[in-house]
Amino acid sequence: MSYVGAPFAHDLFVSYSHGTGADGHGVLRPWSESFVRELERELRADHRLRHPLSLFMDVRTQAGHGVDPMTGLTAQLKQQIGDSALLVVLMSPDYLGSRKWCALERETWLDRQKALALPVEGRIAVVRILPTDEPWPAALCDDTGEPLVGFAFHDDSAGVARPLGWTELRDGFGSVFQRALLGLVGRLTHKLVSLRVQLDERRAAEADARKLQAPDGHSIYLHGRASQRKAWEDAAQALVNHGFAVVPGDPDPEFDDPQLLMAMRQQRVATLVDCDALLLLGTPDGRALDVDLLAVGRHDRHSARARSQRLLPCGVLDTVGAPIATVVRKATARNLQAEWLDGTQPPWPPRVQQWLAGQGAWQESRP
Length: 367
Description:
By secondary structure, this protein is of the alpha/beta class. The chain folds into two domains: 10-195, Toll/interleukin-1 receptor homology (TIR) domain (Rossmann fold, 3-Layer(aba) Sandwich), CATH 3.40.50; 214-365, Rossmann fold (3-Layer(aba) Sandwich). Helix content is 44%, strand content 14%. It has a five-stranded parallel β-sheet, sandwiched between helices. A five-stranded parallel β-sheet has the order 9-8-10-11-12, with helices on both faces. Strands 6-7 form a two-stranded antiparallel sheet. It is elongated, with a radius of gyration of 29 Å.
């Protein structure tokens, strides 16, 4: 489980080099593992992240948190990396010199994001634990080729560079380390929260697209005016006979009182939130359709979309033909993202079904 949710099983993956020397001892490993423990502890201090947060690194001392040494390391590590929402790099000369593992981790993560059609900008945090001289990989640089600013986590004051808290490791990190860590935690938390919102919207859009492509079960808001009740009732009955649920139960009344008109529009938006599509009834009164295109097809629909975060496709159901289907009016509808649907020749409800399926397919194909 992760805080950001599907398609990610982990919120963060920490990539670092052990700094292994000739004796096989990982010089940087103890500090790095302690850093990750402190990072996780501070992230969990936020009540939103406390329980669902999942942080992964390639070696953990706690059972169930690392790669199983009894399975294929590379395949399992690739899966864990790809399932991580953010990449945290502990930058050091050893990291840049790790042409195999660190580079493999980075490229695996990048490839997975590409497959998911998710941008990586703003989702890589570089923690500078030691100064570096070698050029950085392109993924860790900005558009001009300059290394990302990242987060400074090394101290040069003694004439030699060491990661913050290097000499305090056995007794616990001090205040300088903790202040730097809180700065990093604040930025990571913001990224996780905003990414969760983006993914929630994406998941909702995917569900909406699947529903629009389903063969039945759609709810249609059929907007028509009370002065055209007969045309509205005929259109509503045809839709119901084809399996659509139609709301509201009557055409909209026409008010001159601004307060009554505003109350009706508020009710319309509240109803639209739960609908799959909006159809504007096109009757011989072309001027009324012009008003409805703007007031209902644009303003009210956009208000409902802002609440529901759904596509809510809009169409003009033309029951008249040439008298209202002028070039200008059809172009205006198109500019307002309203499809012009021919309802002059029965059976026309299957065309509404095809239109909804096409809208769902278009939504699903969007990156």
